[in-house]
Amino acid sequence: MLRPVPAAAGSLTPRFGVNYTPRIGWFHSWLDLAPDAVAEDLAAVASLGVDHVRIFPLWPLLQPNRTLIRPRALEDVRTVVDAAAAVGLDVVVDALQGHLSSFDFVPSWLSSWHRRNMFTDPEVVSATAELVRALAAQLADAPNLLGLTIGNEVNQFSASNHPDPDPLSTDQARVWTATMLDAARAGSPSGMHTVANYDAAWFMDDHAFTPDQSAQLGDATVVHSWIFDGTGQRYGARSYEVAHRTEYYLELARAFSPAPQRPLWLQEVGAPRSILEESDVPWFVRSTVENSLQCPELWGITWWCSHDVSRELSDFPPLEHTLGLFDEHGRIKGAGEAFRDAISAAREAAPPAPRGRAIELPVGPQPLLHRSAAAPGGSVFEEWMRASRAGDRPTLQVVREHAHDAVAGDTRTGGAVATRAEV
């Protein structure tokens, strides 16, 4: 169900959306959903000229016990999907929350006395897949459903730097991801179903979730791009690297694509005030959108996020109270005005010109090694930025150091293997 929005000139323009953070009660509002407040929030979001929202029902509320999926909670999700339809917005629903804005939302049947590995325990995986299927089935006939995304950066629970990781192998990560996507497809056969891994999958050498999984599984390749990953700290708030961070990341994702026209989705990008001054934000929004539009196969840009977290809520990192396009009172901010204007300009923009020379990214044996070379400050990142600054419009080319590590289905032997030709 890939439904691009027509541009004025008759060409196809990438879609624009917003990650919806409820203004009243944040995601705790799922505890006692207030449809009128949701409708007010979504009307404000729609006024920006976006065509979709991404929503985040909390996992412990949907499935408080391993064998209990609450019908009322599923109905609440449908209520929000229908409210979005009423203001002309399509919806992507995140399953398995998971992790949001520094807080974990893991059901009690996975913690303390009931601690199990969420990725490898057979009973847990089966129950989790049933939740994904039930959620998809609840929404399957909604005309404005785009699809489900598996988790919000659920892969962070497996990371070696997590305080209580759920370890697994690369093969187990692939099986878990495929199982969840199959469950989404069983519940909603026509949806665009994706997996939302955070950037450890792309940049952390020992991470079980890999770029190949993100690029091969699901109906689009999803990236979450944040300049507090070291880009802003290393290069500075108004640096060339900050302005072109998402363009680079999308080209990295495209390099792993098994098909030339696989959609790329910039599913999260925001303007963190831990890096940017408030006066930098409109520039950052405009440059991020303009440079992302230079990437072929870009399906859409979904901004984080709709509303600031209320300062009445405690223990959030300070930046979480500032990321909204609207403030906690519902007033549009400079970031919202800049995003609205960038969307309007994008409707008139010319299609991207062909990319230039390919920067090689060597990839070692499984689990994928050398990913850190692609991270901010890494050799591949640096080379791409130098070429981009010189006007080369570079792309990236993955080079396999061992033939048996090539993409699925490649049975060649011996020598290095490039997974895609130079563009």
From TrEMBL:
UniProt keyword Transport present: no
Entry annotated with the keyword Hydrolase: yes
A single BP term in Gene Ontology: polysaccharide catabolic process
One Pfam family cited in the UniProt record for this chain: Cellulase
InterPro entries linked: GH, Glyco_hydro_5
Keywords: Glycosidase, Hydrolase
GO molecular function: hydrolase activity, hydrolyzing O-glycosyl compounds
Domain (Glycoside hydrolase family): residue spans on this chain: 37-190
Similarity remark: Belongs to the glycosyl hydrolase 5 (cellulase A) family.
Protein name, UniProt field: Glycosyl hydrolase
Organism this protein belongs to: Brachybacterium alimentarium
